[in-house]
Design a protein that fits this description.
about 160 residues, alpha+beta
Length: about 160
């Protein structure tokens, strides 16, 4: 963990973020052999923390690692589930990343694109801190929920 944070502070950040709670649940569901059972939620989230020092060690041009693509997929799946919990409407992620690490992630709700982000250099995907991860995920959830609120007929087409 590159940031100095007490376990209680990490617990408070995770507990205050609906997105992080969902992300931890999804990550733990992937642990079919129980190898993370002894780890705290903050430790399970550490692969998402890529601060500036760690980012400098990653080459600027590189192909995305399967583990990074998996983390990106889980990140947007967690955002979709957090949106569903907040709005009651299913938000489905669609992610298309090419072999060079460029592409787009969207969250689709009905016929509405509730969130869209273009990624480049996906092999460097991460956040500077646990707090930044929480804020980034919660911002996606809040923006998507606000858009669903503005266009409920498009979001509830079915």
């Amino acid at each position: 963990m590159s940031e100095v944070m007490t376990p209680d502070a990490a617990k408070a950040i995770i507990g205050a973020s609906p997105f992080l709670g969902q992300l931890v649940t999804m990550l733990r569901a992937q642990d079919t052999y129980g190898s993370w059972d002894g780890k705290s939620d903050a430790e399970v989230l550490m692969p998402y923390i890529v601060d500036k020092a760690a980012r400098k060690l990653i080459p600027i041009i590189d192909d995305p690692d399967p583990d990074v693509l998996w983390r990106v997929e889980l990140f947007y799946n967690a955002a979709g589930l957090a949106i569903e919990r907040k709005t009651g409407i299913i938000a489905a992620p669609m992610i298309k990343i090419n072999h060079e690490g460029f592409g787009r992630a969207t969250l689709v709700v009905g016929r509405l694109i509730a969130y869209s982000k273009y990624h480049r250099d996906i092999h460097r995907f991460g956040f500077d801190s646990l707090q930044a991860l929480a804020e980034g995920g919660d911002r996606i959830v809040d923006e998507a929920a606000a858009l669903i609120g503005r266009f409920p007929d498009v979001a509830n087409f079915g």
